[in-house]
Amino acid sequence: MPKIIVKDGELNEALKRFSRITAETRRVAKRHEYYLRPGLRAKEKSKEARKFQKKTRQFKP
Fold first, then answer.
1. How far apart are CA 32 and CA 21, in angstroms?
2. Are the CB atoms for 18 and 3 separated by under 8 Å?
3. How far is residue 30's CA from residue 24's CA, in Å, rounded to a whole number?
4. Which residues of 15-31 are buried (b: 16+ CB within 10 A; e: fewer)?
5. Quick one: 7 exposed, middle or buried, by C-beta within 10 A (0-12, 13-18, 19+)?
6. How does pLDDT run across 3-56, given as a tens digit for each residue?
7. Cα 61 vs. chain centroid, distance in angstroms?
8. What is the DSSP letter of 61?
9. DSSP assignments along 3-51, one per residue
10. Is 38 in contact with 18 (CB distance < 8 Å)?
């Protein structure tokens, strides 16, 4: 479990740092969940990139 040191009056910043660290930990764990051949890994990466672009483009006016 990641640990964060909270200084005086910095609770919100500490929560942001904690969530960032836990998100990174989850991302790494997901990547090492099972082995993917390099070609399939590239396909998965481009699929995730398309998904992210679609999600970000959706909210622009």
1. 17
2. no
3. 10
4. eeeeeeeeeeeeeeeee
5. exposed
6. 888 888 889 999 999 999 999 898 888 888 889 899 999 999 999 999 999 888
7. 25
8. -
9. --PPPTT-HHHHHHHHHHHHHHHHHHHHHTSS---HHHHHHHHHHHHHH
10. no
Token couple for 45: 């990466």
Written as six digits, the tokens of 60 are 């622009």
Structure tokens at 41: 């890994």
Q: Against a cut of 0.70, is the pTM above it? A: no
Residue carrying the six token digits 């483009």: 57
Residues found in the chain: 61
Any idea which residue has 């040191």 for tokens?
5
- How far apart, in whole angstroms, are the C-alpha atoms of residue 18 and residue 58? 28
